[in-house]
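Case study 2.
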Amino acid sequence: MLLSSQRWVFALVAACGLFAMSACMGDGGISTHGRVLDESGKPIKGALVTLVSRGRKDEILSGDDGSHDIGVIHAPVTPMGKLTASKAGYESFEKTFNSRDELNRPLDIVLKRTLASATAP
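Prediction:
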């Protein structure tokens, strides 16, 4: 009887420890939102926005107002990865990150026109 009580207490302490560790490590995901804009501040519709973190990937197209809202789920560890945006006629955008704080606020992505599209009639 004493041995089974000790095992039960050990299991309870171990479960509490695992719960506490997972709460401190984060929620296991990363997300960001904002708009894709051109250099004059006009929204860019249909830009491909990609978020890659810890081997997980999500892709969306920006909305009519340039909006994007993207996220990935991964193991509860510090997120590291890359956010990219691209559209024909514009230079690609790329941002690498090493913490959730870098993407924790609205993020407006500014795409610059390529030289060929800027001079085209």
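The CA atoms of residues 47 and 87 lie 5 Å apart.
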